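Posting this for the archive.
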Amino acid sequence: MTEKKKDLGTQGQEDTLKGKMKQAAGKVQEKTGQALGDKEMEAKGDMKQSGGKAQSTMGKGKQKVDKALNPDKPSKAHKV
């Protein structure tokens, strides 16, 4: 079975959503680490948030590039 290749806009939407989910998970991990006094857990949560923010930013960039390359394409994107 072959997987349909996703366009840049769809990839960007997925990256943006996954990045925001990582940010949220990182925030929970960071706060849990703070509550437990676990500096390592807190640091890992902070790193996860940073990675999620980078992924989300890259996703938004992909969406902008897709829009610039395909200005007549109808937008099915939802603000995330």
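The mean pLDDT is 90. Residues 8-67 form one domain.
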